[in-house]
Design goal:
The chain is an alpha+beta fold and 255 residues long. It is built from four helices and 13 strands. Strand 9 and strand 10 form a beta hairpin. The longest helix is centred in the first third of the chain and has 24 residues. The protein binds magnesium ion (2 copies).
């Protein structure tokens, strides 16, 4: 079921989203060569706790997962696309890290992700992150009343295709509100003019995941959570929670 939010609910979701944005900014600030993924999770936990926010990630166990998720962020490094569990792995020079974070505040959820490079960037990784950001920007630009979900999907897919990147097409964006995952599903590829009609008060998490090898194939690692590219190529994932409004897309997960 798709829930349309009131303007007061959008303002409340902005506060939940702000905590997510702040947590991701703090993680990015703390990340560096030698810093462990567990330490990054601790940084995000501190931001959530200080804001009085809960985590929709911690203890989350969707049908595909063998165990409840043990952290407040997903940390996916290099060939990991999404859903990486923060471990004791210490970041190395040139690593490409994608961090996904959620927050729950006053009964509302926010969900966002960033990708960045630790230390010396490889040009191909800079291009991959740039393409993923452009895919997100294109998806957000299509998130306006009168369009349909397929317009967002098509906008994202067109950027990924032009950049010759693959995508794990079983995963995509989603409605968000009281719960982190609500209807509708937002595929990262699709046909314009198709799907659920967009209107004021609909809130969506839009989240392109681009794989630089150009193939769509991925596999779940032994932990049952982490999705990795089959060809070993690097991946990036960037996400915002966005409200559709008559005044244009309102990004709710900026710091
Ligand atoms: Mg997310
Ligand atoms: Mg999401």
């Amino acid at each position: 079921m798709v829930e349309i939010k009131t303007d007061a609910a959008l303002d409340a979701m902005r506060e939940a989203g702000r905590v997510v944005g702040q947590a991701l900014a703090a993680v990015r600030e703390a990340a560096g060569v030698g810093v462990s993924l567990e330490e990054l999770d601790e940084v995000a936990r501190t931001v959530l706790t200080k804001a009085g926010a809960g985590s929709p990630f911690l203890g989350y166990q969707p049908s595909f997962a063998p165990t409840p998720f043990p952290a407040v962020i997903c940390a996916s490094v290099n060939d990991a696309v999404v859903h990486g569990i923060p471990t004791g792995y210490r970041l190395r020079d040139g690593d490409l890290v994608s961090v996904d974070c959620g927050a729950e505040l006053d009964g509302w959820a926010g969900d966002a992700a960033v990708s960045f490079i630790v230390g010396t960037p490889r040009p191909a990784d800079v291009d991959l992150i740039d393409a993923t950001q452009r895919a997100l920007d294109a998806g957000i630009a299509a998130a306006v009343p009168g369009n349909r979900v397929g317009d967002i999907s098509h906008a994202i897919g067109a950027v990924a295709k032009a950049a010759r990147c693959g995508m794990p097409t079983d995963f995509g964006g989603h409605g968000i509100g009281r719960r982190m995952h609500e209807d509708p599903h937002i595929p990262n590829r699709g046909r314009p003019g198709r799907g659920f009609p967009l209107r004021h008060g609909l809130v969506l998490a839009i989240e392109p995941m681009l794989m630089s090898g150009g193939h769509d194939d991925y596999y779940a690692a032994a932990d049952g959570w982490t999705l990795r590219t089959t060809d070993g190529s690097r991946a990036a994932h960037i996400e915002h929670t966005v409200a559709i409004t008559e005044d244009g897309p309102r990004i709710l997960t900026l710091p």
